[in-house]
Amino acid sequence: MSDTTTGLSLAALIRREQDNSGASYMDIAKRSGLSKAKIGQLADASSRYQVRSETVQKLAAGLRLPLHVVQRAAMVTAGISDDTGGRDARIDLIASQLAELDDALLDVVAAMVDAAVRVRSRG
Hints:
It comes from Nocardioides nanhaiensis. By secondary structure, the chain is mainly α.
């Protein structure tokens, strides 16, 4: 599994989708057009492998994430530097998910972030 400075792996993205939405491999497979077995293979964090571009595009659709987020995770999974310059990959993932929230929930998130920044600045 990767740390936040090298980015999230495909396995981490799949696990995050399952944790957040309760989606099964079959749910993700149906949305992506990939087989359940393929989703299981991609979710295996114990191996490094390269993923075809078409598979990455389909997985992005299945996970409902921007293509660039899944492309970066595919690079991490393959053991290729994702060249983020130390940027935390969670930022891109969170930003992509914010676009799906309505105004009321965005206000809640904004207040939470503001509170967290204030707590951190106090020491």
